[in-house]
Every structure is written in C-alpha cells, then in structure tokens.
Amino acid sequence: MKSYAKGQKSKGVMKLIAAILVVGFFTYVAIAGLGKNASGSASDIKLGLDLAGGVSITYQSVTPDPSSTDMKDTVYKLQLRAQTYSTEAEVYQEGADRINVDIPGVSDANAILEELGQPGSLEFRTEDGEVVLTGVDIKNAQEGMYKNQSGNTEYVVQLTLNEEGAEKFAKATEENINKRISIIYDGKVVSSPQVKSAITGGEAQIDQISSYEEATTLASTIRIGALPLELKEIRSNVVGAKLGEEAISTSLLAGAIGMGLVMIFMICLYFIPGLAASIALTLYTALMVFLLSAYQITLTLPGIAGIVLSIGMAVDANVIIFSRIKEELLAGKTVESAMKEGFSKALSAIVDGNVTTLIAAGVLYWMGSGTVKGFAQTLALGILLSMFTALVVTRFVLKALYQAGIRDPKFYGLTKRAKNREFKVINFLGKKNICFICSAVVILVGVGALIFNSTKGTAFNYSLEFRGGTSTNVTFNEDLSLNQISSDVVPLISEVTGDNDIQTQKVAGTNQVIIKTRTLSVEEREQITEKLVDKYGVDGELITAESISATVSNEMKQDAVLAVAIATVAMLIYIWLRFKDIKFATSAVIALIHDVLVVLTFYAVARWSVGNTFIACMLTIVGYSINATIVIFDRIRENLKQKKSKEDIADVVNLSITQTLTRSINTSLTTFIMVFVLFLLGVSSIRDFALPLIVGIVCGAYSSVCITGALWYIMTKKFVKKAD
Predict the structure, then answer these.
(1) Contact at 8 Å (CB) between 298 and 87?
(2) pLDDT tens-place string over residues 58-76
(3) What is the pTM of this model?
(4) I need a labelling partner for 279 at 20 to 30 A (CA). Which of 26, 459, 644, 681 fits?
C-alpha cells in the first residue's frame, strides 16, 4: 500500500509539474511571443480603430448631387466590401456626397486603395453583347463551399438580386441556356459562368470556381461593383486610435487586477479547488491571447466585452463544479468520489449554458455586421476555451493535487463550519408577487422615461456612432501628444458643445487632429475656431468641418436586431429540446427580455450614452442572463426526477433555487469584480460600457433567482390545472 501511495504521489507531482510548465509556456508566449515578430503575444494582436487606429479613406460621388437613398445604399454596400479587410471597418457619410471608410489594423493606404479603389461599373453581359444586369440589380454576393455527392469540395458564389433584377435575370437565363453570361467589372471580364437552366426566384449560384480564395475575390468584386454610385478617392490618411494608448493600458491593468482579485476570491472560498481553477484561468487568459494573435482576430472594445463575459462563464463553470463537489462531501462521499460525481453532475448545466450562448454567438456572427461580428468572434472563442479549461484543465490539476497528497476533505470545502451549517430551504416562491411587482415598476419607469425623453428630443442619449455629428480637422503648429489632446483640446471643445461625447484621432505623419462631436451649429463652429486660434495659434483657414452620418447605419441596426431575434428563437428551441418542456424555454426567454428591458431603463433614466458599445453590452447581458437561468433549470430538472409523489412542485423549485444560490451569488460576484475594476480604472468610453454591464450582471442574478423559477412554476401549475 505504501509503495502504491508513493507511486500515486509521484504521479500527481509529475502531473502538477507538467501542468505548471504548460501554463508557464503559454503565459510566456502571451507576454513575450515567439520569434522576432513576437507571434502569439498580446503585442501581436490586431487591434480595432478604437484601440489602435488604421487607414481612413474618403470617397466622393462622381455623380453630382446624389440622392440620399443612393448615398445610404452605397454606404451599406461599401460596408460589406470593407469588412473583407476587417469586421470592425466603419463606413459613414461625410457631407452630402462623400463617404468615409475607416479600416483598422492596416497602415498602408495604397495597398487598400488598389483593391477597394474606385468602385466602377458592373455588368452581366450575354455572348451577344446584351447587358442583362448592372450593379444596381445586385443586392448581395457571398462566397461559400459545400461537399458534392462525390465528397469533393465545391466553391461557389451565391448571388441575391432585387425584385427588378430577378425578373430581368429570369428572362435572360431562359433565353441563354447552355450559353455563357460574362460578369464584367470596369471593362474587364472577371467570370463567365455557363447558364444551365432558367434561374427564377432572385437567387443564383456561380459554381466551378477553383478555390475559396477565388470565390472570395469574385464575391467581393461583385459587391463593390454593385454600388449605386461611382466613387472617386479624394484623400487617404493613417489615423490613430479613437480611445488612445491610455485605453489599452488601463484596460490591461484593470483586467490584470480583476483576474488577480477573482483568483484570490476563488482560493479563499474553495481552497484547493480554487487554486486549481486559478491555474486553469491563467491558462485560459494565455490561450485567449495566443489564439487572438494566431487567427488575427481584430480586438475592439466590444471584443473585450465578449472576453469579459467568457471569463465570467469560465469562473461560473468552476463554481458549479466546486459547489457539486462540496455537496457530495457533505453527503458523506470521499474526496476522490466527490470530485468524480461533482464533475459528472455539473456537466449538463455547463454544456447547456455554454451551448445556448454559442448558438447566440454563431447567429450574431452569421447575421451581424461590424462590431457585432467582432463581439461574436471573441465570445465564441472564449466560450470554447472556458469549457476546455474548466472541464479538462481544472479537472487535471485538481486530480494532480489530490494524487500529490493533498487529500484532507477540509481542503476541498468540508470544513467544520460547513458540516455544522444547517441547510434551510428559502421560500422564494412566497415572494414571487413582490418580485414581479418590483420588476414591473422598474420597467414602467423605463417606459415613462422613454416617453418623456422623446418629448424633449430623443428617447435615448445617442452618441456619435448612432446620430452622426460634425468632423473637424485641425492642423496644429506642433505634433500634440495624445495626453495633450485629451487633457487640453477635448475640454476646450467640450466648453463649446456642453457635451463629453467627443472623439479625437491623430493623422499619422502630420500635425492634423480629427475631432468628432455632435452636430455643430455655424455659431459653435466659429467659437471652436476662435478658441483654437487663441490658445494654439493655429491657422483658422486650415480648420475644416464636415457633417458626418452615423457609423452604425440603419441596416446595421436592423441586422443586429434581427440577429438577436433569431438567436433568441434558436436558444428557445434548444432549451425546449434539451429540457423537453416548452415552459422552461419560455420562462428563460421572458427572463432574458426582462433583463434587457431593465438595462434599457437604466439607459433611459440615467441618459447614459448609447454608442457602439451599446449593442455589445446588450448582447453580453443576453448571454449572461441565459447562462444563469440554465443552471437553475438544470437543478429543477434533476430534482423533479427525484421528486416524491406527495412533494409539491413549489418545494422542488424552492429547493433547486436554494441549492444553486451560492453559485448564483459567487458567479455574479466574480464577474462583477472584473467589470467593476474596469469601470474604476477605465477611460470614459470604457466606463460608458462597464456601468450598464454592471447593471445587467446584477439584474441577471436577480432574475435567475427570483423570476425564472417562479415563471416556470406558474406556467406548470396552470398547465396541470388544465390537464385535470
């Protein structure tokens, strides 16, 4: 027995050393990177416009006095093209006939201009030379691939036509079966697919493409050629970050402090399991940095939101497991048996919670645009990593620590205090009416605030990204630092506008600074010019100002809303199938809507700035809310299987919520710590994102404990009565 125990201890120590070496290696890579280019490190991550800047290109319509409809349509379609370079690209209207394209993560404007260039004409022409379609007939073009019947990969481009284009194309293809229709861009043939049959319905597929890269290029060419307006490039600049270096450094500092506090909290609360979780979280962070760098995913402020949520879910998975282990120990199991049962019983809640959020991330990436895609990418990556670190790494380290000789149950949560603590079931359902009334009052206050705000102007306090404004270009006599701009120039502009929603960017290689504010009157523009001339001695003649449209277009808003709606339905269906009870799914979605409405109430009442992080914030709350609800429903499902014949359903619900209460509090607290530190240390734009998220975290914890179980109980009782 002694030799066996010694062998187990040696095995455990070796496992522990191996785990520490792996964690140490990836941590080193995340900090220092590999090779001369520091690949895989934080410094190698591709940053968005808000964090690092990029190329800004301004186009002007060749057609004089273009209609507002053509301009809006061109902006939206150019956005699709710009996203080929980065999902975080921004396209917005400047003045009456100009369009600005900001692409992050690049510094060579010429390389972009060669491809994005001057959008020219697009024609679909028959062999006889007849033009059957032009760019205005194309709604979208998307590359894709699939497996054919032989198992080989086929590359295609899927075309979507508008109503008029569908009619013209149906007639043209019917008359040209077995002939070729050439796609001509700026006078050059880019593809000549053969017509196999008449194409009706407004959708067509171009096949027999040799590679995915070729399909991507063709789809991009069709999208850019499908612009209603022909554009010419009038200027291009390399611009600095919107938020500046300070935003990055404070975010990193806040993240490090938050992670440190979470680890200390976990170790103090769960002892040895908490230590194992801290090692796993360290690996999670290092792997996240490594993969963001390896896959060149553009990281922006909304992307950071996705990472924060996934860290919360990584902690959540560990909390669920450790709570289960503690329950098994209190039931008299050995440490080894308790660990095995704890991971086994926690698996379904972890998988269901993460899969529902993954479904949301997948739909958002598929249907969303701009910052929504960036958020979805980092969220999905973070969820997959969090599941791996919680279910594999934490388990491996915990088992290694046990085998290494740390076997006393008190180190795993079975303390004297835990043993002597009396378990009392809290009557949550007894307070359900009070909770419902409180929630209704808060939501009604929000509705009232929206109505009141609408009478005074706008329902929400929309920022530049949503309402547009004025872009002022100032050429200073010297190259001002970012600190000088934020500490001196911004307050000066704010004195005139009476608004703190001001964005600044430096133009690389020049003394120019771009200042974006709300829409300014002629008088306000003159005041700003006067103040800048007086304080900095700039040449007033070189100060130019142009009206700019919102960077979040109506189409992008519609895409985001539609994506959230479809994601919600998809999650509802998944929960319905997994729990085999539509009442679980309905309750979860109602609670989700409740959380969103409460956060909207905060935005309305506090007149909090609604900017580009607003969408990411709301999406984070959706993911967080559904995950918290799943854990309680999983316990209700488990307890229903063990329910005694005379036991009331209300007792089962109260028991389930009480059993998961520790998890609900601890998970919310750890996520709260991360976001609160971000709020305390972050720059103003980060605070704009962090505070509503804090509201959402608190509300999500409240609704999962006080609302969801009660909703399911009410629907279940009504269903039972109808059945009787």
Answers:
(1) yes
(2) 888 888 888 887 888 788 7
(3) 0.74
(4) 681
